Amino acid sequence: MSERQIQLEVLRYNPETDSEPRFQTYSVPCEAEWVVLDALNYVKDHLDTTLSYRWSCHMAVCGSCGMMINGEPTLSCKAFLRDYPDTIRVEPLVHFPIERDLVTVIDDFMEKLNRVKPYLIPKEARTIAEGEYRQSPAELKRFKQYTLCINCMLCYSACPEYGLIPDFIGPAAIALAHRYNSDSRDGGREQRQQVIATKEGVWECSFVGACSEVCPKHVDPAAALQQVKIASTVDWYKEHLMPWGKS
Amino acid sequence: MMEKIQTDVAIVGAGGAGLRAAIALAEADPKLRISLISKVYPMRSHTCAAEGGAAGVIKPDDSMDLHFNDTVGGGDWLCDQDAVEYFIKEAPKELTQLEHWGCPWSREADGSVAVRPFGGMKIKRTWFAADKTGFHLLHTLFQTSLKYPSIQRFDEHYATDLLVDAGRCQGLTAIEMRSGQLRQFQAKAVIITTGGAGRMFPFTTNGAIKTGDGMAMAYRAGVSLKDMEFVQYHPTGLPNTGILLTEGCRGEGGILVNKHNYRYLQDYGMGPETPIGQPVLKTMELGPRDRLSQAFWHEQKKGNTVPTPWGDCVLLDMRHLGEKLIDERLPFVRELATSYLQKDPVHEPIPIRPVVHYMMGGIHTDINAATVLPGLFAAGECACVTINGANRLGSNSLTELLVFGKRAALSAVEYIGSGVTPNDAAITKQAERVQGRIRTLFEKSGGTESISGLRKEMTDSMEEHAGIYRTAEGLQSACAKIGELRLRYADIELHDKTNVYNTDLLQALELGAMLDCAEAVAVGALERKESRGAHQRLDFEARDDQNYLKHTLAHYHPNEPPRIEYLDVVITKSQPSVRDYSGAKK
Ligand SMILES: Cc1cc2nc3c(=O)[nH]c(=O)nc-3n(C[C@H](O)[C@H](O)[C@H](O)COP(=O)(O)OP(=O)(O)OC[C@H]3O[C@@H](n4cnc5c(N)ncnc54)[C@H](O)[C@@H]3O)c2cc1C
Ligand code: FES
Asked: How many CB pairs under 8 A join A and B?
């Protein structure tokens, strides 16, 4: 297997010992099919055990390993070295406070996720004995895409709006609210609208679409935001212009 | 002063089993104080990696008896049959419950839940959500758990030790990773749901977090580990990364061929060959995992495998399934093979080889998910109930998380109803001892050993000697090696002496846990002088029901190998017989 020498420029920051972040460069011998995460693991095992970063699955599904790689929010376990030059810069995801090295503080996202009630609020209750709700493949298809979010937060890093207005609920959380709103089994839309059809909700989004571009799972949060906006506008008309039309 | 958190039930682990337990507790009694402790955020738990599906009887042509027989036969009669009966009865209810919570199960045209075939099953019974079943199961549970304010989460807290006084488990200590501070959880009951330990091996489908921490915690607290020698290899891993290609690939009709483009499984008791694209249940490619992985080993010995830069492989050919079906039912498989191996299953066969996947063994629990230590319960992959016996049937594990996660919660509720309370003074003293021990590890200088160095020696030895086929000689050297590494572990020196998110420290603790688990695997395997399911001895090729229709119990010793005892298997209605996966008489 061919070996290639990569210069990995890694942002380091330890709140106990550093007054501000700095870069540290590691020279890493890499195998052809490696991803950036493999190179970080090489550093951790052989060059510098003090480096901290999150990872687990190494298959782009646990959502732990998002980082800025050469300035782009990326899953490091899916960032193939073959797609990068010999010098690679690795930084923590932007728009989040740094906890340590490449580890960010994600409390804000966790709180927002909670706020949008991302769980089924049944339209009609059903006991286990009554069996499953019926849902046609077409009904499933209406929301399936929005279930694929791995909460990796790349979209929050890509979103210029979230960078400017931290109150913005943001792409992933809104996409998940929309996922439940669009589920044929759910009746909780009204409760969620109170959270997402607001200024900090969809109306903060300016449709740059960067969230959908970086999404490693093709969730397309921008489309979700767009659909919520349209639906909210329809709600508004129904309420204000044709009160009789609200069923 | 160490912070103390008072709680009713502490759950260690927020994967499928831990989340299911938490929800069951919150529903059983909204007043219960529940602490859900996890070293990663819940949605990072490795349940997210499960692809294929979850088994439960739902279709009219299926029956509880068929699921029972597939499970018990698949497990080579090492399953406790009372536990299997309970599991199978609860399975459909739990999967339906998950549907009610919003899990996006794949559907039939009429809107009912769809099922797919899996290895070792006589009938299709695996519920699936495309090929991301575990991911959807985990996120559905996690998102549903947000409904319950009584579930208090302690994300990114690394549990280190159980606190035991007067013969009862009364809490645990955990490091808050953000601050590096040790916290003491005083609990009336503790449930361990920390998942598997595949990271003892170098080539595994298991994520970095699967280091057997919870198994080691219980083991050191005096609860034995059961049947640890049974380690499941999954036959189809990508050779360079160990990434799994789900059994669903074969369930949908994928075939396995050697370098002569020959479907070699027919030579290993799983023939005759079935028509391509028309898989027949419980034979050929739909044989059980242990048999398929063993067949690979023989093909390799015969020189029939395909050499690749990452070792010898056989080929998984799915081309005949066509792009449409692959995209609909196996989109993740296509994405994984295409990006990580640069091979598209729509257009070319994918080289694969067996990969360490699942621990059948674990914390010894009874049918109620209780351990022998009052106040301590366990569920999920870290536990051994045992419904998996010597070889787990694919898609039984996800269901097991739900059934026994809930069971552990209900048992804990019942237990604390008897009015137990933690003894503050006694367990605080213990927690301080834990703190002292971690501080010593933290501050020690002049150590000569590195974490990654010891880890590599451990994984190499496990692969070489405790893999698909084993011998007394090899296992003896594995036991000696692990014993030696346990001693050398004392000479590790940490280079990171700071508090915030110190992964140097956590990796050292994880290594300690893996060494304890690995020793239980190696010693259990050495002592079991027969071949059964996933445990195959070249020097004892036959199953020996006379002497080993028994569970292995490994009892911890701080500086010696574990003491091994045996426990009879519970048999209710199925006497051991021959496992037959030939298609001849079907
Ligand atoms: C790639 C792959 C595919 C699979 N596919 C299938 C399938 O299709 N069908 C099937 O039935 N099974 C499948 N399995 C098996 C199944 O997914 C696992 O057995 C199951 O998900 C384990 O769940 P768990 O809840 O026990 O543990 P996990 O989901 O692994 O969760 C463990 C939890 O414990 C926590 N934890 C661990 N140690 C500590 C500590 N020291 N302190 C605090 N917290 C800790 C972790 O943070 C995590 O939250 C698959 C497994 C793999 C690896
Ligand atoms: S390590 Fe899990 S997404 Fe990258």
From this structure: 157
Q: Is the CB of B39 under 6 A from ligand 1?
A: yes
- Using CA coordinates, name the residue in chain B closest to A139: B111
In short, whether A60's Cβ falls inside 6 Å of ligand 2 is yes
Fold entry, domain A4-104: Ubiquitin-like (UB roll) (3.10.20)
pLDDT in the model for residue A53: 98
B250 is known as an active-site residue: yes
- Does residue B234 carry a catalytic annotation? yes
- The mean pLDDT value of chain B amounts to 96
Q: How far is A145 from chain B (nearest CA, A)?
A: 10
Backbone angles phi and psi of B408, in degrees to 5:
-60, -40
- Judged by a CB distance cut-off of 8 A, whether residue A18 touches chain B is no
Whether A57 lines ligand 2, by a CB cut-off of 6 Å, is: yes
Q: Which residues of A touch B451 (CB under 8 A)?
A: 49
Q: From 3.90.700.10, 3.30.70.1060, 1.10.530.10, 3.40.50.2000, which CATH number describes the B233-357 domain? A: 3.90.700.10
Q: B194: CA distance to ligand 1 center in Å? A: 7
Q: What are B231-261's pLDDT values in tens digits?
A: 999 999 999 999 999 999 999 999 999 999 9
> Which residues are bridge partners to B312 per DSSP?
B307
Mean of pLDDT values over A145-162: 97
For domain B3-68+87-224+372-383+397-423, the CATH architecture is 3-Layer(bba) Sandwich (3.50)
The protein residue with its alpha carbon nearest to ligand 1, atom 52, reads: B50
Q: Which of the following is catalytic: B136, B139, B183, B250?
A: B250
Asked whether the predicted pLDDT for residue A247 surpasses 50, the reply is no
Question: Is A62 a pocket residue for ligand 2 (Cβ < 6 Å)?
Answer: yes
Q: What ipTM describes this predicted complex?
A: 0.96
The verdict on a CB contact (< 8 Å) between A100 and B501 is: yes
pLDDT in tens, B527-549: 999 999 999 999 999 999 999 99
Contact B362, B245 (CB under 8 A): no
Residue range B464-469: mean pLDDT, rounded: 97
Q: What class is the A107-245 domain?
A: mainly alpha
pLDDT at B155 over 60: yes
Give the whole-angstrom CA distance, residue A59 versus residue B513.
24
State the angle between helix axes of B322-329 and B331-340 in degrees (0 to 180), rounded to the nearest 10.
100
* Distance, CA of B577 to chain centre: 26
- Write down the domain spans for chain A: 4-104, 107-245
* Helix ranges restricted to H, B330-471: 331-340, 396-416, 424-443, 451-465
Ligand 1 geometric centre to CA of B436 (Å): 31
Contacts of B499 in chain A (CB under 8 A): 16
Three-state DSSP class for B138? helix
Q: How far is B241 from chain A (nearest CA, A)?
A: 8
Mapped to the 3 state alphabet, what secondary structure does chain A carry? CCEEEEEEEEEECCCCCCCCCEEEEEEEEEECCCEHHHHHHHHHHHHCCCCCCCCCCCCCCCCCCEEEECCEEEEHHHCEHHHCCCEEEEECCCCCCEEECCEECCHHHHHHHHHCCCCCCECCCCCHHHCCCCCCHHHHHHHHHHHHCCCCCHHHHHCHHHHHCCCCCCHHHHHHHHHHHCCCCECCHHHHHHHHCCCCCHHHCCCCCHHHHHCCCCCCHHHHHHHHHHHHHHHHHHHHCCHHHCC
Q: For the ranges B37-41, B366-370, B576-580, which has the lowest average pLDDT?
A: B576-580
In the set B183, B199, B234, B334, the catalytic residue is B234
pTM higher than the cut 0.90:
yes
